[in-house]
TrEMBL record:
Residues 18-72 form the HTH cro/C1-type domain. Coiled coil: none annotated. This is Transcriptional regulator with XRE-family HTH domain. It holds the Pfam family HTH_31.
């Protein structure tokens, strides 16, 4: 399994440092690419943390930027070495959203809006199994199990005692969930009852806030779809907006983009039912499932 080093976060931090060195030098990514005889897209991927960075890459870039501070070079080289280590999720093989998992593992807080399903960090094992099988009908049973195991492992970030990152403390989670996610029956009625009871139980933790957006509230800032906002304890790590896709995911880090999504989320929280109203609302839906089962 992995060490305590998070390679995803190391790549992001290193990329930001390299971008700052380039900008301080007054060079464009295209100019750097021409000097190193590589593609401009490689330089961009190195700077946005989407590509592993070798120590040779760091050495070459420091030469181009004429960095003379040996301590800075050694620090960047060490970050490059750390960025090539494997996170805990690599033990499960090829995971499509491994970049997101790396970010979530080191995040201090997560704000998420889910229009169709219960958020992954708040799912029961049964719900997750049924959801993955339904969403990916051609997935082999072994791969379904792997995805569910990863999802359950991720939930350790919400635990005080089984945290992947004990130095961080539990993840501060704020989830706004559309009523559709509560009424979309994944599995049978009994499974949904257990899932919604678990949702209420998790919402009672001091670091977990759950709000429901009922159908009756009409149009709202979340109608454009699911997204999540991750914030980190280190001020040097920029906030990330994550938008999940079928074949590829989108990560937004520009201040203007993050600001727009943050403002949208504030409107979501303001319009949704408050915490107590949400628990009562979920309890009402549990009773409806119980009546259907009877």
């Amino acid at each position: 399994m992995a060490s305590n080093v998070n390679p995803t976060v190391r790549r992001r931090r290193l990329g930001m440092e390299l971008r700052k060195l380039r900008e301080d030098k007054g060079m464009t990514a295209e100019q750097v690419a021409e000097r190193l005889l590589v593609s401009q897209s490689k330089i961009s991927r190195l700077e946005n943390g989407r590509r592993s960075i070798s120590q040779r890459d760091v050495r070459d870039l420091c030469d181009v930027y004429e960095v003379e501070d040996r301590r800075l070079i050694d620090s960047l080289m060490q970050m490059a070495k750390d960025s090539r280590q494997q996170g805990w999720w690599h033990a499960f093989g090829d995971i499509p959203y491994s970049v997101y998992i790396g970010l979530e593992t080191d995040a201090a807080s997560l704000r998420t809006y889910e229009p169709l399903v219960i958020p992954g960090l708040l799912q029961t094992t049964e719900y997750a199994q049924s959801l993955v099988r339904g969403a990916w009908p051609e997935t082999a049973p072994a791969d379904v199990d792997k995805r569910v195991q990863v999802r359950m492992h991720r939930q350790k970030r919400l635990s005080e005692t089984e945290n992947n990152n004990p130095e961080l403390g539990p993840l501060r989670l704020w989830a706004v969930i559309d009523e559709a996610a509560l009424r979309r029956r994944v599995g049978d009625a009994q499974l949904m009852i257990r899932q919604l009871e678990y949702l209420i139980e998790q919402s009672e933790q001091p670091h977990v806030t759950v709000q429901v957006m009922p159908f009756g509230l009409g149009a709202h800032p979340g109608v454009n779809g699911q997204y999540a906002i991750l914030e980190f304890p280190d001020a040097s790590d920029s906030t990330v907006v994550y938008i999940e896709g079928v074949t590829s995911d989108l990560y937004l880090e520009k201040a203007n983009d993050v600001q727009k999504y943050s403002v949208m989320y504030e409107h979501l929280r303001a319009q949704a039912l408050n915490v107590d109203q949400t628990r009562d609302f979920i309890s009402g839906i549990i009773n409806e499932y119980a009546d259907k089962r009877a």
